[in-house]
Amino acid sequence: MNLRKGKTKLMLNKSIECALLAVEIYNKPRTPFRVESYITHMIMAWTKLLHAYFHHTIGDKFYYKKKDGRRYETVDGERKSWELGTCIKYFHELSESEKANLIFFIKLRNKIEHRHINKEEIGLLIFGECQSLLFNYENYLIKLFGEEYALNESLAFSLQFSRIRTNKQILSAKTLLSKEVKELKKFISKYKESLSEQIYNSQEYSIKLIQIPKISNTKRNDLAVEFVNWTSLSEDDKKNFEKVTALIKDKVTFQEAVNPGKHKPGDVLKLVNDKITIKISHFDHKCLYYIFSIRPTSNDGDMNPFETNTRYCHYDEVHDDYVFQDKWVEFLIINISTNKLKKDIWYDNFKEKKKVSIKDYEIV
Q1: Domain ranges of the chain
Q2: CA 315, 317, 321: angle at the middle one, nearest 5?
Q3: Cys-Cys with 63: which of 79, 126, 175, 189 at CB 3.0–4.6 Å?
Q4: 237, 364, 335: which is closest to 343 by C-alpha?
């Protein structure tokens, strides 16, 4: 479709510019407000795309009218155009999955735009939905206005640094912002649970990418990974991929529910005391994890609850307490039973608020 110069083409060009800017922002890891900027610009891109379509098909009529049905609502003297939610109601080409994807982002944008939180954690939860938002946009851009408007840009898996910020910075941010992050996570989870299995599993709602590394029999100019197109797979291949997905889901669910290899303080005492002759109390345990800096205590002053030795202990944010690893139980049993650790060592150091190097006692 060759559009002549005019309002339709102008709106379409603005729509495309918004989409390309959204992709550019998303793929720059140091860009401030990356996730919400992507969402905002993609909603603008979709809105302008549908405005262009309405202008081309029904004319300049995509504006809100007053109750009398004759006059238009205005903002600063300009007619108020339909927002994306209203556009969706009058655009009947969308599938239920595509509509669910758009509604999700309209609601999410309203929730995050005024919250001062680290959105990267949220971005990880909605990558598939972000990818579908873009893919669906390009599909309708081509469907409504032709192949010549196809974009040669797309979201990609960005290379990730192992440590963008220090652990202390990240954990401090979590301490301050965890409540609002939890609220957004709850909204995302609730929205997903409200969808039917058919919509949730559709590629139009959320892209489920299968990343396959190419190890052998490849040309040197090939991509290092290949993304499988679900619709092109045979039924046998689909069943195999579903088995892999089921295994991954089962593993995650099991770990989340059971919290394997982690013990509360009372459990640590029971496991240790069953293996040693000199019994230890909760106070002994407190002295031990203090002098070896296993977890923070009130003696540490202005403490950050996340500052633990994760080889031996983790802070459980949900229950606001600490859980200890099997390694800590083993550490105590071996050092106390071999008489390498004696009560006067942990008593005296705790009393004088002295720390002891755990490396001198660690099991090699």
Answers
A1: 7-209, 262-360
A2: 55
A3: 79
A4: 335
